[in-house]
């Protein structure tokens, strides 16, 4: 596999062949993921949309998946790259299970494995165009971390990707605290998702919340949030600036 | 030992279904100086006898740290042992780098065994002439494994390899059932006593043995000479004392050896 970086755009034609072998831009993308640690483990929320540029093309994409017994992976960005990552992890988990020796991959191991994969791809100028959120519980310890498409990786008590970073995290910084109950955690996530719904154009009103605890993973059925559009400002939007533009 | 027409090649079977070259390799393990391993639920102790080529030289290093949570003691061709230790370190650190997590011992041991097996099935290779006692920790607790030149591996509560290891094995066989619940200190004491068994009456001094420990919350490390000597002093202090439980049992266990050496009792009290 050859990978060359075009030095000037005049070579675009010549480099077309080699460029098609590496990721240049994403096509079908998922928007934000928001995740928090709570009393019994980790909660992760995402909507089910897959955008094709500005078109909200796919409305039934599951962007949060269980990995092994102990982890949950959520992804925003290119959906096909997410599916590729799921294939890698499938193989990893399969080999781990085949050992059948009482040892199993925990969320920390999966997170670090993904960090290595993302960073190595970035170094080859052929990234997997995703920001990944990895949450899990093992031996009573909750874990929540993130990896970006350039291999930046860290852990925190609450993480978000894409627009979530700008809209959800400020809410979480104010309102998150340790030992949230399940109900409070879900309420907090829904609050974040509602803001994203109003303000992120790629968000759709169909979301899933996934929960992981020592017992295992549960992914909720898709549901929608109640929204309110009867604000005065929406009734007469041009009140402040009459006339055609 | 055997002079055979089927023992030239490792890839030649004998008519009775044996690979003599592999068996000869296992003989090489028996020529090396003794190495001993024992484990409890939470700790593993590896000990070896320090043998030096001559008085002028230093002794061979037989115990290696593979990682904070894995150590290995070898017996046999130490050069082969060194190479395999390097392989183990490499596997361990690669796993740590990718997964930020210690490599489970059981998985390392299988890779080692598979590596040894390859040498039993290539005409241009020879089996490794070294036995390895691999001690380590993983999610399911402390483990001790023995890796054979044949490519087999077994898990043990306690084991001894190398020359005069039978004496140590006999000692360990009597005590092993209690090892799981042993304290760290008792485990170390038993290891040193087992080493003493292999010395055939030579006075046990801390300069003659190397002892290493690893456990939950205790990374692999060697005990210094002082600590070893202190443990030795607890049972070698009063040689004529019949009450010293450790001594007495050690006496009984050393069937093929003569206990005429300095400081040891002549009479074996409990079991004969």
UniProtKB/TrEMBL annotation, chain A:
It is found in: Cytoplasm; Nucleus. Keywords: Cytoplasm, Nucleus, Proteasome. The keyword Protein transport does not apply. It comes from the Eukaryota. Its main location: cytoplasm. Component of the 20S core complex of the 26S proteasome. The 26S proteasome is composed of a core protease (CP), known as the 20S proteasome, capped at one or both ends by the 19S regulatory particle (RP/PA700). The 20S proteasome core is composed of 28 subunits that are arranged in four stacked rings, resulting in a barrel-shaped structure. The two end rings are each formed by seven alpha subunits, and the two central rings are each formed by seven beta subunits. The catalytic chamber with the active sites is on the inside of the barrel. Belongs to the peptidase T1B family. Non-catalytic component of the proteasome. PANTHER family: PROTEASOME SUBUNIT ALPHA/BETA (PTHR11599). This is Proteasome subunit beta. It comes from Brassica napus (Rape).
TrEMBL record, chain B:
The keyword Nucleus applies. Residues 6-28 form the Proteasome alpha-type subunits domain. Residues 237-272 are annotated as: Disordered. The proteasome is a multicatalytic proteinase complex which is characterized by its ability to cleave peptides with Arg, Phe, Tyr, Leu, and Glu adjacent to the leaving group at neutral or slightly basic pH. One of its GO terms (biological process) is ubiquitin-dependent protein catabolic process. Component of the 20S core complex of the 26S proteasome. The 26S proteasome is composed of a core protease (CP), known as the 20S proteasome, capped at one or both ends by the 19S regulatory particle (RP/PA700). The 20S proteasome core is composed of 28 subunits that are arranged in four stacked rings, resulting in a barrel-shaped structure. The two end rings are each formed by seven alpha subunits, and the two central rings are each formed by seven beta subunits. The catalytic chamber with the active sites is on the inside of the barrel. Keywords: Cytoplasm, Nucleus, Proteasome. It is found in: Cytoplasm; Nucleus. GO terms for cellular component: cytoplasm; nucleus; proteasome core complex, alpha-subunit complex. Its main location: cytoplasm. This is Proteasome subunit alpha type.
